[in-house]
Amino acid sequence: MSADIDLRPNFDQPAELPHEPIPPCLPDDHISRQPTLLQVQGLVCGYSGKGLLGPLDFHLHQGTFMLIEGPNGVGKSTLLKTLIGLIPPVSGRIDWSLPADALRFVPQTRTLDPMLPATVFDVLATGLHRGRGLSALRIRPRRTELLDALEVVGMAHLCDHLFRELSEGQKQLILLARALLGKPRLLLLDEPSASMDPEREAATIELLHGIQQQLDVTVMMIAHGSALARSASSRIMRIDRRGHIAIEECLKDCLDDPHHTH
Amino acid sequence: MFEFLALYGDLYRDPILTAMIAGLGLGLLGVYVVSRRIVFVSAALSQTSALGVTIAFYLSAHLGLTGLLAELLAPALAILLSTLVVFGLVWLGERPTLGRDALLGVAFIVPTALVLLLGPLIAHELHEVEAVLHGSAVLVRQSDLYAILGATLLVVATQIVAFRAFVFASLDPLVARTQGVPVRRLDAALFGAIALLTGLSTRALGALPTFGLTVLPAIGALGLNVGLKWVFIIAATSGAASGLLGYLLALATDWSVGASQTLVAALLALLLRALGLILNRRAPRPPASTPPEKARRA
Questions:
Q1: How far is A251 from chain B (nearest CA, A)?
Q2: Could you list the residue ranges that cross the membrane (chain B) (predicted)?
Q3: Which residues 21-80 on chain A approach chain B with CB closer than 8 angstroms?
């Protein structure tokens, strides 16, 4: 990752949404020519062997900006955690065609324990852990490297502040910066804009879109009925209250009409 | 007091050093214990270790054990029983329906009851059993000092090598797992270190100061918004200072050593919390990069 690419959101912009038009999604045919990163077949997600969601069949091409949306409690987060191996699937297959190191998960901020007085630097440094050997346990964070990552999300000035004292929106961007430290090919985000005001949400979606386009990172994101998130997506998975799933591909010019799908 | 120390320095050197080193190691591990809300783990391990030491006294008295075997039996049983509790906790961690707090309750209550039952059966060693529970200078031997020194060095070395991995596993275990960090093994290593040091410290210092030196320095240090590394350093220093000053207080006043160490640790914790409150009021708030509150409401 390089700080040369200026993706920084500008939170001082006047409150007009979105700040600037987000460039159009990649056309379907372009994405479908990209390699498949994930293939899911007959996946049923749930807990203790009881299915909550599925069966699911879908695939994810490199370069996709995939949005998962649906009401609370339908299993969106469970699906994401199942895909990355935090929860065992009830049944079905999940085939990744990229190494585990190339994938980074951005959780909701509340998963971080606020009792430990970690600074932003401390939190960000955890993003440098990768691999499974004993040597992977010891990391030597370099301040300049961490500042570069913070610079991408416009939070370098917060490096020495306590993470728990930041606003939820700031925390979420710090977690995004941490994920970028791993130089991921795929970002999985669990409601990154859930606790953000409209301005910050717009800036964050814009930032994610910029990351996807400029750093060639595939994005899979849960969002809660956000028209902005829809507008940036090239693929939308909708889950309704009964667990029914519909996957919609956005057209090339979907940003002109966020509700336009086929 | 200094004349007194000069006169009896050799006599009290080992107990004082043992208390300081144990306080340092326990204070450091205590940050994890308090921040992960597993204070009861420490209490349960102290009581379990106390049971191990009491059983060792009972066996030594009734089987006529002497020498090295008798010396090793107490710390060995203390560490064995507390390790069993730790493995039970790690095992239960994968089975959320059983509940860790239930096991901790059992690990606290049953050993306490058994120590009270075994006490009258070993009347000759009753004062030693009381010393194990409340702390005393007379229990500390040179072997205790070396054992605690070795265990503390191991804890400190482990923390230096994998500090950020331990922090990651405590701060954000979900993401740590997705990045390949062996969270379960780190937890087992952490709980194992707590069991080892608690077992040895309970034998040497007693259950009360062992629990006090684990929890109180960390409570004080966590009140300071100084960043993670400094919290661990301050907790370890405060634990060592509590061990030393508590001992000196007990010598000067003829109070119980364990109670004095615990009271000093509590006082230092209080001072650190007060200092934290003052510093936090003066510290600048993080600069806002969010739109103003009124825009949010609008």
A1: 32
A2: 16-34, 39-60, 72-92, 104-123, 145-171, 183-200, 206-224, 231-252, 258-279
A3: none
